[in-house]
Design goal:
Distance between the termini: 18 Å
Strand content: 15-25%
Largest sheet: 3 strands, parallel
Helix content: 40-55%
Structural class: alpha/beta
Shape: elongated
């Protein structure tokens, strides 16, 4: 895996991912009551807080699994320069990310196929549709 390059700091924070959940009417009513009473700014604020509390509760388990599975925790960006260096070294990447993996828009499907052996992302993958299509069989 290529070392994190200094240009990573210049990569802007990506927009949040949207998820959809289904809640029962009673749960939704209780959420609305807490929002109305000023405990939370809105439904999203309560849901984010609840998720963060659960993640904090299980934080040690997450850290152990990340360590055991050698996952990159956070954001991992692969640019053309990174992948060309991997290709020049005659290596293939086994990408494992918990968070966000991004493949630069200028990376060609051919370069991605030549350098990425497998791709496991627990979170989100941002890449061009052509690169995603090329790597489809390698995404786990």
């Amino acid at each position: 895996m290529p070392a994190r390059t200094p240009h990573l700091a210049a990569v802007p924070k990506p927009a949040d991912e949207k998820i959809t959940i289904n809640l029962g009417f009673v749960d939704l009513g209780q959420i609305d009551l807490l929002v109305q009473e000023g405990f939370y700014a809105n439904r999203t604020d309560l849901i984010r807080t609840a998720i963060r509390n659960q993640l904090a509760t299980h934080g040690e388990v997450v850290r152990q699994v990340v360590s055991r599975k050698t996952l990159v925790l956070g954001i991992q960006h692969y640019g053309t320069e990174d992948l060309l260096a991997v290709q020049a070294a005659g290596e293939m990447l086994q990408v494992r990310v918990l968070g966000l993996a991004t493949i630069a828009p200028d990376v060609t499907p051919e370069l991605a196929l030549a350098t990425i052996e497998s791709l496991t992302v627990l979170g989100a993958l941002h890449a061009s549709p052509a690169v995603k299509a090329a790597l489809r069989q390698r995404i786990r």
